[in-house]
Amino acid sequence: MTSFEGRLLGRAAELAELSRLAESTLAGVGQAAFVVGEAGLGKTAVLEQAAADVRRRGMQLLSASAQNLAQPCPFAVISSCLRLEDSPSDERRAQAAEVLRGDARYGVAGARSEAAGADAATIEAMVGLVEDLCAQRPLALFLDDLQWADPASLAVLHKLVRSVHQLPLLVVGAHRPVPGAGDVAQLSRSTIAGNRTRLELAPLDAPAVAALLADRCGREAGPRLRRMAEGAAGNPLYLTELIAALRREHAIETGGTMAEISSDCALPPLTALVTHRFRHLREDLLQMLRVVSVLGAGCTTAELAAVMDIPLRDLLTAMAEAEASGILRDTGQCLRFRHEVIRNALYDAVPGSVRAMLHMKAAQRLAEAGAAPERVAEHLLNGVPSPEFLITWLEGSAARLTTRAPAMALRLLTTALEIGDPADAGYGNLRLHLAVAQLSCGRLAEAEESARSALAKAPDSGLESVLRWIVIQAAFARGRPDQALAEARAGCRSPGVEAIGRVQFQAFSAVCLFALGDLAEAGAVASRARSAADEAGDSSALASTLHVLAAKRFIETPDAEAVELARQATRITPDTMHPAQWLGLQLSLVNCYIDLDRGPDAQRTLAAVQKPAERIGGMFLPWYHLSCALLAFHTGRWDDALAEIEAGLDCGDEAAMSRALRATAAVIAAHRGRRPLAEAHLAAVLPELDNATVAAFYEYLPMCAGALLDEARGDDRRAYSRLAEAFAEGVGHLPGQLILGFLTPDLVRLALAQGDHDSARRYAAAAQRRAEDSGGLYHLGDAYRCEGLLSGDPDLLMEAVRCYRNAPRPLNAAHACTDAAEALARRGRLDDARVLLDQALATFTRLGAVWDAAQATSRLRAVAVRRGSHRPRAGARDGWQALTHTERLVAEHVAEGCSNPEIAARLSIARSTVSTHVSSILRKLAMTSRVEIAAEVTRRQRSGRSPSQD
After folding, report:
1. Of residues 366, 371, 364, 402, the one with CA closest to residue 385
2. Which of 319-323, 342-346, 593-597, 714-718 has the largest mean confidence?
3. Using CA of residue 511, residue 516, residue 517, residue 522, what is the dihedral sign?
């Protein structure tokens, strides 16, 4: 794009809009804008002038451009924009860079699933970094050429654009029109509302073309020159190159009042005009520029000097000449062409064999300089690497490349195995690295097959155990614990597996048996493996056996001993096991605490695992949010639960966890009388998965949601049938009577309604056994409620109320209150019944449980009890009174100027959960920025009211 007296010609409206968005961001109301236009229309120039305006306003400015690569590295453009690639020195960036490298996720099945093209942990880290930067002062992110951006970077942008309304953040992107519904098109086209704008650049109109010609020629263009320029169709780049070429050939006459060409002639193609520039360059400079075109926009002057074997001083002189000739632009250390059309013209002039040679040489030089493996891999993937260099480099770099970019590692390892000699000593290691890369990408069946194939070829000593582990982990993660068990047992028998390996395989055999529902055998194997692990000093195997023993006891006899076994597993030093294993143990312990109503213990453990879950990602991050949601639901903080569910669903493609999360949301929606929403949540739940992963232990949630909806539709018979079948037959491999004890009060209630008194007594007996085993208040409440429903004894039901309230389980307490009220009414104690009904309705109102309130009112009306004259007010839907306690705390921290990550650290919750709360606060208060939230909090504080309490 060409400027005229410091202004862009024909782009005043677009620049004015971007200036308005910058003003809005400075005022605390973030904005996003996308500049869209064909090549040469001036997108980059618009971004540059807008960026200069942002800089003048004192905002932080970060920018980057995507590169046109066949396989870009994940998070390439966004990590470049946030300056994460070059060993950042500040703590915030260093933490994000550590997550980007992915060391904690190495070997975790599906840690970077290709289905999503990105991992939730890195996205979370980058969004958190941006929010921290925004807390310093308003921030602007400018990203050019997004049509070439990698999917992972676009995933980060999607999140930033969705949350831009709650941050002093300006996101400006530019891209060419993209056909179809690609990621960048979806990002741009879905953002035309509210805080998001789409600016489509049109060709220059006739006055702007005339002004541009006059500026370039020094005077008004004559009619022949104007006719020739019409062929450029208002494209500024085309017009600029045309005038430059004509002037180089001295074809423009400026002797009179107009700039004119001697005769009418056809307009050459743009590429011909671009290549015309090259005629006036020295051959050595032209050759240098061709090398730059091959190495790409990420090439630095130091890299180019190394590839071309010339002194850096001479190179800098040549680059200055190229800038003066209008070929390159001054962008600091990285070399960048003035326009991609120029790069393409130079690139096309380089024979394919020479390009491959240059990429190979660049890879070698970068490797020698200790560059990041993904930078080396980019050149290797575009060249024809020598077998010796590729294999040698992969032996030392495959692990690091797999953690950062497993898809790149897969391609290079596949090539190395094809061109390498199976007889070479390092060939077995390459097969191992290939299987690990497939495992990390979520290509589980391929990982299993690769590892099995390597095992069949007599692996080197020391590799057999690792390869068997890959087979086991892949089989287990893809829902085949039976195959994982068979492989673990084979490992125990193999003479090629060392003693410590056999202990580990025995311990994991217990895990597989537990997943298959064979609790007795799982316990026996775990006990033997525990002794062996103790003797061998293997902490990882010991933790697995303790976990199985704890889970088995918790299902069969949920008591303090089960919790102590789980605690022993979690107390094992995290450094002696994989971070993912430690995290899984902690989250399992949380669920034990929740079921035994040890809320403070559950909260402390969740606070301890929040950061690790965000760093590891995978299934662990949505599992963490699900655990938080269940704790909040059971303790009556339903809006907090919904915030956790939203954050969990936003983690990516963890379909199994999304099933449990959506089911929990459906349960809350059904209780709140929003049946269509509940049905929509269940309709979005994916079909049932095989029950080998953590998700299998939450399969009861969709079942419970379905039964609740049956009741909401008035089909109590179907609800009873659904619950009774699950209780008798189990859920997946798991025994129903052991894992569905919490359903016994509903089963007794529904059985009595159906006249099935024998079954009701069986369910009550099951509740009694569980209460005797655990002694937990929640379990005792269930036992009292079951017996009270059977006998109609209000005293038993009131004892259930006491247990539930002390647990606390407010929803259960309100239901038991309703039951007791009905029992009292049937005994003629209508006044006492009315008091209990009012208590139940007060709880239902606080929870927003509209459906439960209606059911209770209807039941008591049938026995001549109506609610008292003092009725609890329905919860406000907007305004300060509509904010939950957590939202008010978040608002106070916002008023202190804290970023979302800082608030998350203070409240011991996830950053994404805080973001959800901030969005909810803005919506309820009808506000547009954190600045307005802060002002409201300050106003309330000055009036003597505590924002978190009033």
Report:
1. 364
2. 714-718
3. negative
Q: Which two tokens stand for residue 416?
A: 């190395």
pLDDT of 545 over the 70 cut: yes
Distances (CA, A) of 899 to 131, 366, 651: 6, 38, 20
> What is the rounded distance in angstroms from the CA atom of residue 111 to the CA atom of residue 580?
10
**The predicted structure's pLDDT at residue 1:** 39
- 164 and 171 Cβ atoms separated by less than 8 Å: yes
Q: From 203, 351, 204, 339, select the one nearest 274 (Cα to Cα).
A: 339
How many angstroms separate the CA atoms of 511 and 519, rounded?
Answer: 10
Can you tell me the mean pLDDT for 271-295?
Answer: 87
Q: Rounded to two decimals, what is the model's pTM? A: 0.87
Tell me which residue of 587, 601, 505 sits closest to 551, measured CA to CA. 587
Q: What letter represents residue 375's amino acid?
A: R
pLDDT, tens digit (0-9, with 9 covering 90-100), for 417-462:
999 888 887 888 899 999 999 998 888 899 999 999 988 886 666 7
CA distance to 218, 343, 554, per residue, from 247 (Å): 11, 22, 85
Nearest-angstrom CA–CA distance, 153 and 131: 16
* Res 128: pLDDT: 94
Q: Which residues lie below 8 Å from residue 357, measured CB to CB, with a gap of 6+?
A: 383, 384
Q: CA 857 → CA 559, 673, 788, 860, distances in Å?
A: 37, 14, 20, 5
Cα–Cα distance, 130 to 602 (Å, whole number): 30
Block residue for tokens 């994982």:
484
- SS3 state at 871: coil
Amino acid type, 950: D
Sequential DSSP letters for 451-507: HHHHHHT-PPTTTHHHHHHHHHHHHHHTT-HHHHHHHHHHHHH-TTS-HHHHHHHHH
Distance CA 398, CA 235 (A): 46
Give the span between the Cα atoms of 950 and 943, in whole angstroms: 11
> Could you give the residue ranges of the DSSP H alpha helices within 637-684?
638-649, 655-671, 675-684
Q: Which of 89, 75, 63 is nearest to 336 (CA)?
A: 63
3-state per-residue secondary structure call for 13-50: HHHHHHHHHHHHHHCCCCEEEEEECCCCCCHHHHHHHH
CA 315/CA 317 separation, integer angstroms: 5
Tell me the average pLDDT across 50-71: 91
Peptide bond into 901 cis (omega under 30): no
- Position of tokens 């002639």? 265
Does the pLDDT at position 43 exceed 70?
yes
Backbone angles phi, psi at 765, to 5 degrees: -65, -40
Question: Model confidence at 55, in pLDDT bands (50, 70, 90)?
Answer: very high
Distance CA 733, CA 691 (A): 7
Our CA angle for 470, 476, 479, nearest 5°, is: 140
**Alpha-carbon dihedral of residues 908, 910, 915, 920, nearest 10 degrees?**
-70
**Closest to 111 in 3D by CA, of 652, 629, 590, 544:** 652
**What's the token pair of residue 546?**
């303790």
944 or 398: which leads in pLDDT: 398
Rounded mean pLDDT of 551-560?
A: 87
For the stretch 61-96, pLDDT in tens is: 999 999 887 678 899 999 999 998 766 778 889 999
Q: How far apart are CA 356 and CA 452, in angstroms?
A: 34
Would you say 498 and 470 are in contact if contact means Cβ atoms under 8 Å apart? no
Question: 251: pLDDT confidence band, cut at 50, 70 and 90?
Answer: confident
Mean pLDDT of the chain, nearest integer: 88
The predicted-structure confidence for 187-227, as pLDDT tens digits, reads as follows: 777 655 568 899 999 999 999 999 999 988 988 999 999 99
CA distance 816 to 810: 10
